[in-house]
C-alpha cells in the first residue's frame, strides 16, 4: 500500500521555520538549528544520534513520488527538476513559472491536494509518497489524504517563526508508529487515524 | 540540587488546553483527551503504556514544593490547600481571595516568579519544585528559573485551544534527558541549557 508521509523537523514549540522565512532566506533565520541533526552523517545509525540523517535520507529516497506546495517547490528551485529521480507534483491554483518547462518530472496540479495525491500515488507504483510543505500538509490533513507524519522533534524553543500546525477545524487522532530516541532529536512517526 | 520541573501534557500541535478553557470548564473541551494516558494505572510501568500515570504521580509527589500561577491555582481550588502535603507558592500581583486564608500551606507571592522560585526551593529542602501553569512556565523560562520540562506529547492534533508555548523573545536550547516511549504518549524530559 502506498502511504503519503510528511517528513518535518519541528522545534518543541512547534516551529518548522524561523522568523523572516522568505525567498532568499528559505526556512528563515535559525533554519540550520532545526536541521543540523541531519548532518551527523557518515556513520551507521547508533544510540549516540549520529547516522540518523543518512537513515532518513534513505527512507525518503525510497518514496516513489513527491507532492509539494508551490511555496516549498519554488524556495527549493524545484530541486533542479530532480528530487531523487521521481515525479514531482506541485499544488497551485496558478500556472507554473516559465522556468518549470525545462523540468519534465515536474507537474503542476491546479485542482487541489487530493487530486495531486491521487496522481502521485498512481505515479509512485506502490511506493510511498513524500509530502513537502507545512501549509500543504495541513490542507492534506483536512482533505484526509495525509497518511503518516514523521516528525523530528528538536530540543529547542525557537520562540518565533512559522508553525507546522495552525488552527485546524477539527480534532485529528494519531497513532504512534515508531519512536527513535537520540540526543539530537526525538524522531516520532505517527499514523493518522481515520474514522 | 533542587530542580524546578514543569509537568505538562501537550498535543502534537502544542495545545495544553482545549477551546473554552475557563473557570467551570478547567482546561477546556477535550481536557481528558490530553490526560487519559494518566488514568491507565494500577499496574507497574510497562511497554504497553499502562502504569506510567502512577510512575509520574510518584515522581511528582517526590517534589518538595509547588509554584503555581494564580489561574491554575484557582481553577484547581488551591488543591483544597493540600498538594501532596508540601508548601504551595502562588504567583500573583494581587492579594489572594479570602477563601485562601484557611490554607496554611498556601503563600501568595506578589513580586514575581523568580522570587516565588527562590522561596519554593528553600522550602523544598533539596527536593525538586513542581511548577504548575503554562503562562507561569513561560515567565519562568524567560526569568531563567525553570530547570526542566517533562512534556507528555500526546498523539493527537487538538486543532485549537491554549498553547503551552506562545512567542518567546529569544531562542532557548534544551537537552534531552530521557524519553519514555509508550503507545499513549511520548514522555520527553528536557533540561534547559543555560549559557
Write a compact overview of the structure shown.
The structure is a homodimer of 195-residue chains. Chain A is 22% helix and 29% strand. With 195 residues, the first copy, chain A, is of the alpha/beta class.
Describe it.
- The structure is a homodimer of 195-residue chains.
- The first copy, chain A, has 195 residues and is α/β, with parallel strands linked by helices.
- Chain A is 22% helix and 29% strand.
- The first copy, chain A, is built from 5 helices and 11 strands, in the order E-E-H-H-E-H-E-E-H-E-H-E-E-E-E-E.
- In chain A, strand 3, helix 3 and strand 4 form a beta-alpha-beta unit.
- Chain A starts with a strand and ends with a strand.
- Chains A and B meet through strand 7, strand 8, strand 10 and strand 11 of A and strand 7, strand 8, strand 10 and strand 11 of B.
- Strand 10 of chain A pairs antiparallel with strand 8 of chain B, so a sheet runs across the interface.
CATH class of chain A: Alpha Beta
Provide the β-strand percentage band of chain A: 25-35%
Summarize the amount of helix of chain A as a percent range. Answer: 10-25%
Give unreliable regions of chain A as ranges: none
Structural class of chain A: alpha/beta
* Oligomer kind: homodimer
Largest sheet report of chain A: 8 strands, mixed
CATH superfamily of chain A: Dihydrofolate Reductase, subunit A
Alpha plus pi helix count of chain A: 5
Set out the fold topology.
The structure is a homodimer of 195-residue chains.
Chain A: E1 4-11, E2 15-17, H1 31-35, H2 52-61, E3 65-69, H3 70-75, E4 88-91, E5 106-109, H4 113-124, E6 129-132, H5 134-143, E7 148-154, E8 156-157, E9 162-163, E10 172-181, E11 186-192
Amino acid at each position: 500500500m502506498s502511504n503519503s508521509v510528511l517528513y518535518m523537523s519541528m522545534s518543541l514549540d512547534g516551529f518548522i521555520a524561523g522568523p523572516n522565512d522568505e525567498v532568499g532566506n528559505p526556512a528563515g533565520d535559525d533554519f540550520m538549528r532545526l536541521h543540523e541533526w541531519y548532518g551527523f552523517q557518515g556513520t551507521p545509525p547508533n544510540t549516540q544520534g549520529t547516522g540518523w540523517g543518512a537513515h532518513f535520507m534513505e527512507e525518503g529516497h525510497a518514496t516513489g513520488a513527491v507532492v509539494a506546495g508551490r511555496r516549498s517547490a519554488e524556495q527549493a528551485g524545484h530541486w533542479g527538476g530532480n528530487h531523487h529521480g521521481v515525479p514531482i507534483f506541485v499544488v497551485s491554483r496558478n500556472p507554473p513559472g516559465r522556468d518549470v518547462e525545462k523540468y519534465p518530472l515536474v507537474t503542476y496540479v491546479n485542482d487541489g491536494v487530493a487530486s495531486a495525491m491521487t496522481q502521485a500515488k498512481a505515479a509512485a507504483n506502490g511506493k510511498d509518497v513524500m509530502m513537502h510543505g507545512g501549509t500543504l500538509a495541513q490542507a492534506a490533513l483536512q482533505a484526509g489524504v495525509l497518511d503518516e507524519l514523521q516528525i523530528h522533534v528538536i530540543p529547542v524553543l525557537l520562540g518565533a517563526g512559522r508553525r507546522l500546525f495552525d488552527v485546524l477545524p477539527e480534532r485529528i487522532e494519531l497513532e504512534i508508529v515508531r519512536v527513535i530516541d537520540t540526543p539530537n532529536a526525538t524522531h516520532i512517526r505517527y499514523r493518522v487515524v481515520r474514522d
